[in-house]
């Protein structure tokens, strides 16, 4: 199992010119403050920095246009991950750019999964299997203030992009199915998808063959094909020559039609210009004044003899150009007519060759002979192709049987039962400690249960489930020991006794060696140790006094990301 730890996160808003750096203690980091001081926005940003978007984000936080750098370590190797919008860049401990990513699902997700050996594969609504985005890796470790205390497995957005993901996710994280199960199952699904293509081909080939066999001409004849050889060769040569000529004339006809359209457009433009000049000249000639004021803008214009003469010259040029275009158009129409006739003659000659093919030799036409011989050849090719396709399907089926046997062996019933029993044992312990007395065991017996209680018991029952799953993740699971991130456990107006029970459980009964980030208004005098981050400015999670230094610190990541 990969070790994992958070070192620090930098959050920066150029729009507000504010920033904040939070350093994480290896054991416990408390983020404390009254309501509306931005605790939740900072806590939501921890997994957001990895591409796991929370289910709800405050509008003011969205407006701040945050960029982040989160520094973390896995197996003592340190990394920095930069995020702005949907752009991510991963850096080594020496700030060397390791990769840039523009898509969470298609680029960042697979890379992060590879980094943490996260082999879970889920099925999208479209039916395709893929590595899920980072939210599915961090789900067991996060309770969001807005959604996590009312429903389990609900703290991130867009989880429904996958079909029936809940059981697969729980089985993966708790180790009911080992990593290898998901690797082999992914190979199986890929093979099943690969099999669809030859199956479609087999179906199409079968339909074509049946159709061809029903159309085969059943005529008894004895024909010496060699007696037709010379005629066939001549006809083939003639057809090829005529087809080339026909194509040549068609191409030339297209070019001529294009020239015709162009010339007619030019002629229309020149004619319009000439009409406008005629109107200008008539208007100028009707006025006796040598100076004209524009009725629209009031500007003055000369109306001398020289000006009117210039208009007349323009008219003459338009007339000359119009005459040239008209002549070119007439010449072009002659060429068009000539090529149409030539094309018609070529097509007629090609038709005559086809008529030769229907010339009868007794009761059998040459065309019938050629068609039947061709169909026999095609049928032979189709049968060979069908045989190859069926062989390919058989090979895939054999490999699928092998993979299915491995999957069945890895899906160990005894391990599943032992894991579920351990889960129920943890649930009973935690529910008792948290003073949840009315939740029957059948309500949480399944390891992927949706926990439902009423009133103030609901958050405590969810905390019991959350910690029970984490114990299994730690002892049996496939997932790295990610930090536990919990925001505001005092939900549904817990009395002091119950909230203290919740906090004491988080302090002393969470999985061993788990890094905890906990958002609180009041710690009720419980000493968690570690580090306390105080949040005191109303509606301001970020700080003015940290902006300059952190903007300078983040600049190198921003520049490298833009260049990368």
Give the biggest sheet: 6 strands, antiparallel
Helix content: 40-55%
Q: Give me the Rg, rounded.
A: 40 Å
Shape call = flat
Q: State the CATH class of the largest domain.
A: Alpha Beta
Name the average pLDDT. Answer: 83
From the 3D structure, determine the CATH topology of the largest domain: Rossmann fold
Strand arrangement within the widest β-sheet reads 2-1-4-5-6-7
Q: What CATH architecture of the largest domain do you see?
A: 3-Layer(aba) Sandwich
What order do the helices and strands follow?
EEEHHEEEEHEEHEHHHEEHEEHHHEHEEH
Low-confidence stretches: 219-223
| End-to-end distance | 31 Å
SS class: alpha/beta
Q: How many individual helices?
A: 13
Beta-strand level of the residues, as a percent range? Answer: 5-15%
Topology:
Elements: E1 4-13, E2 18-23, E3 28-33, H1 39-48, H2 59-63, E4 67-74, E5 77-84, E6 87-92, E7 97-101, H3 104-115, E8 122-123, E9 129-130, H4 135-138, E10 142-143, H5 165-173, H6 179-215, H7 229-286, E11 291-293, E12 300-302, H8 305-357, E13 360-361, E14 364-365, H9 366-410, H10 413-433, H11 457-476, E15 484-487, H12 496-508, E16 516-520, E17 531-535, H13 547-563
Parallel strand pairs: 3-16, 3-17, 10-15, 15-16
Antiparallel strand pairs: 1-2, 1-4, 4-5, 5-6, 6-7, 8-9, 11-12, 13-14
Helix pairs in contact: 6-9, 7-8, 10-11
